[in-house]
Amino acid sequence: MQLWLALLVCLMALGGVSTGNAQQVESLVQLISKDQEVSLSSSISVMQEDGIELSVTQARDMLSQFVWHSGGNPNYGFSEHGVWLYTTLSNVTTTDKWVVSVAFSQLDNVDMYLMQDGQILASSFQGKLGMKTHYRLPMMKVELPYAQTVELFVRLQSQHSSLVAPISIQSSTSHEMQSFYDSLLWGLFYGGLIILAIYNLVVYFALRESSLLAYVGYICTVIVWQFVWGGHANMMLPQALSHWFDTHTDIIFVLIGIGSGLFTIVFLEAKVTAPKTLPFIKVSIGLLALMGLCSMVNLFPPVWQNAAVYVVSMLAISCYTYAGFESYSNQFYAARYFIFAWSILATCALIGMFSLVDMLPSNFFTTYCFQFGVFFESALFSLALMDKSRHQLEIEVQQATNDLRNNIELVEEQNVRLDIARKEAVAASNVKSQFLANMSHEIRTPLNAILGFSKELQQGDFSADKRDQINIINAAADNLMTIVNDVLDVSKIEAGKLQINSHPFSINELLEEMIGVMAKSAHLKGLEFVYDIEPLPLKLIGDSYRIRQILNNLLGNALKFTDTGHIGLAASGKVLEHGIFELNIKIEDTGIGISREDKRKLFTAFSQVDDALNRSYQGTGLGLVICKELVKLMHGQLSLQSSPGQGSTFNVTVRMNILNTKPSISPKSDWQDQTVLLYEPYPNARFTASKLLKSLGAIVTSVDSIAFLQTCTKAFDCMIFCIHPHNQAANEQAFSSASNIVVKHKVLLCSGEDSCCRFSQFTGQFTPQLRLPLTPGKLKEIMHKPTHAPVNELQKRLQDLPAVTVLAVDDMEMNLRLLSTWLKPSRLELKLAFSGQDAVNLCKESEFDLILMDVQMPNMDGLQATKLIRETKLNFGTPIIAVTAHAFKEEQQRLLNSGMDDYLPKPLDLSDLVDLINRWCHQGVEDDEHIEVFNWPLALKRANQNVDAARDLFNQFIKQLPSFESKFERLQAHPEHNELQQVVHALHGVCCYTGAVALHSSCSELESQLKREQFDKVPSTLARLINDVKALLRQEKDIKHNIRD
Question: Which of 242, 252, 250 is nearest to 222 (CA)?
């Protein structure tokens, strides 16, 4: 349909040039307004060349042969020869800058001349075969003198189209504005078509609907045709390519016709909905293809070729339109958009043609209506495609609905089966969880005794052989405990119950502890341990136990799979927004490495790289699985770089909260400006040690050359001398050379005691003698030498335990014997009960400050015993601690909910036991003014480092305090000891979880006095308790503000 405009113009021009009067006519066009465009088509005289191309001078000499062109129609017919147009102009406006333009882009040559008195004032040679310009239409910029007559000559020539030349003149300003709007509208036109093409192409890739692809092809041919027909090809394409398109415009018509035909067949599904018209469509497409082939070989003259293409195109469009009606009659309702689209385009084409033949006024609408028609046609085709897709979707939905209705009984049956299978799976999971809980208890209970007594034996005085045997027992038990913990952790991971418990800790101390253990193991295996640390915050809030577990697994693997070289640990980090710190840990080794194919197996439970490795390097294959899940829970990542034979590097990032931002390493340290000579023959260790010293502000000279030591004459504040057992001769030579260096303080670092003993004749001059690698803690130790012998901190804490009475309940004698052995150095009195019933009987007779209750016991378990003890007069408020081997969090929570006050996991750790006794058996002191009213870290600890839970506990507690205050004041005025004991017990049970340290102490003391019937002490203690309640209420606002921040 878009070909109708060109076809009608050509048919209109078949009669040749309209000559009107066969006499010379002059018409002067006066330009009286600079804001309006003036059409010159109605004031034109015409002369046709006789086969000889004339110059403008020759044409001016033949003015007598120019004839008046009547009607104002700017179509001058078909002609192989040039046609001259002539008119005269007179400018009576205030501007002299004007633009003459020809509003038709398909003319081969458009030569324009402006003359006055026989002199050429301006000229322009444009058209498709003319000079390239920045405008899509031929134009000439001129300067018109005021009130003087000038002559305008225009020569037209074109072999591929009729000589249509709507000539107009307007001021330069008006022309620029018109060009701007023209470019804008064409941009919108092309942009809209391109957007439609891209949208439908994307939809095609999603739906694979062939009609969408055909539509995209049709849009592309329309864009190419408009690009050439609108004159934009002459502006933007290279001249040779532009000329080819200009001389083969009919091929573009052919492509549009073929594209329209293919779209019609595919969209209408013509084989089904328009079978009668389909053969005619195929014949039309074949004829169009034949016309295109004839154009390629230039078989016919251009005029005849164009006419043939136009006729075949009209026949094809008629077939396409009829196919739309046939499809619609066959209930293909999407065809209504198809028919409407062609009708819109035909209407717009007629409007455009009527404007060219002066049957309609030439304005913005009539000028661009054909382009609007093409655009709307494309948009309607797109709507037709959407309607077709919707219709197909409705059919598919209906089919799916029918299938669903037919299969509903089968689906219900499958649902019943799935529900049964789900219940069986849940039951199996519960059985598995119960089995793991029982296994945990059964294994941990004997392990508790094995680990406890083996560690106790390590403190004794035995021969070397016996001590080695004890160490072997201890190591084997530790390994077994590690395996049990790993299996339980994997079970928690599978159940989604593995949790992170955050608490304040020092990352630097944790790393120092890990290095102390792992470096010793590396040195025993003949490996070097390299430690590289960046400044880290002093205190973080995170799960130190899980971080230690990650490091232990990764460093353990590095030690296991490395036989020569070194193990490296690097720690760094960065501060993120909202008080978050991202800790980066890198663990590298020079071990066997891992191939790309085997990396996938690493993070699979119970797997190693291959069976040979499984036999050579024993292990469960759970460590990396647990590490990956732990890192994920801490919002981090675990990555691996490795190659066979080149070692491995694990990179770990975890995120935690910052508690103390002060850096652990600072240039303003005791090492600031200290001159240090560092001798370290191992390159990696020398680099990291030098870097650490410089970070602390020291002035470092790091060397690995014995020759330097022999020739060194400079004095130093400190010499750090590192030796490795690999080359004894070189070490002896280095010791001899170092003895001559002037230095105030000499420090020796070696790979353990054995390395130092080999060079005992040299080591006397070095103090202290430490184990490699160099760490911030060791540097602090060097600078601050201890003034007294080290004290066993745990033994000191045992001796400082309060003189309280503790009841331990367990059905296994060896566990009670272990507790007796551990607590023997302390001042507390330990009573033993071998069953739940024995514990109940003892509680009826005696008062205890703390009860350690085993959970699983025959006849009467720990929960039953606890319930009966709560009913005794002397111990109804005594803290009862569940001593359990159950490792699952749910079990521990169940024990707390059943009435127990706290829990202690098996196997017991003496340090944890001492902490628990101190926590629950706080004794009243004379100087209570130093006891804190509120301790937020303690509240966090009671809530397992759950900040929200700690805040909620305190808020609930503070709401109850006014009620307790009024009760205590009433009982102070009117004493009633039984009621007072009940109220104190209720408050005591609440405040121990809230961080109210002073109030907890007063409650504990008052409850103890009431149970012992020490009524003479009650008034003063009660008064102090009331003061503690009032103090806490006074500080309520400040406390809430602090814990909120």
Answer: 252
